[in-house]
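Weekly modeling sync, notes
Attendees: S.R. (lead), two postdocs, one rotation student

Agenda item 3: backlog of single-chain predictions. S.R. asked that every request posted to the team notebook include the full sequence so nobody has to chase files. The rotation student volunteered to paste the first one in as an example of the format we agreed on. Action items at the bottom.

Example entry:
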Amino acid sequence: MEYLAAVILGILQGIFEWLPVSSEGIVTLAGKLIYGMEYQESLAMAIWLHVGTFVAAVAYFRNDLIEMLKCIYTGGKSKSLLVFLAVSTIVSAIVAVPLIMLAFSEQAALIPDYLFTIMIGAFLLIVSYLQKTQQVKPGSQEPAVPSAIVAGFAQGLAVLPGLSRSGITLAALISQRYNVENALKLSFLMSIPVVFGVQLALPLVKSGGFEVTGPMLAGALAAAITGFATINLLLEFARRTDFHKATAALGALVIIIGVLSAIA
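Predicted structure, as returned to the notebook:
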């Protein structure tokens, strides 16, 4: 893979990882359609680029992570967040391990891309509806174990290409009556342990191991820089904007793209 192609795919990962649309699906499709990569090679690159957005999330939420580490020994207000992430990660792993094996199988490559695209668009419309109608729960909105189980199960399903990790976890958290800003933050934080685990597991599920090259490092760096900027923009957007309208518009656009792909 050339450096320019890797950087462009990294930028796509940095932008779409936090949006309610599948970054894995988009990067995989871009690798296949634009750069002529084989399905499994493109999927492996899409998963690898999560290293970049992992670094972005760790850098952006470094203070929250430090406070969680401190509370292991001293207790404190970050304990509920630590428990939330631990439970959601365990549930995600239980759901995701068999699915990631399927993602690298030959059968996964036979599923039409346009079908995944239409499913993403429909899911975005559901997310928009939940954002508009779901009442936020009163109080401090501290993360709780039942919410962690729901969000963790949803995140585990998102290991398959075409399903949006951010979108499905955002919908799950909003359904648990978190406001959009808090749901976004929890979704971002949930990505950190899961992506770390996927990068450790990937060499085990991909035959021949996982050789890191210069272009792959360049792509991860591009994803990290773009992802850091995108986190900040999205949180600001959630504070100031009627978020469900933007999500509905994106969902409608994605469905149209999927339908056009099916016709073509």
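Discussion: group reviewed the output briefly. The chain has 13 helices and no strands.
Action items: rotation student to repeat for the remaining queue; S.R. to check formatting next week.
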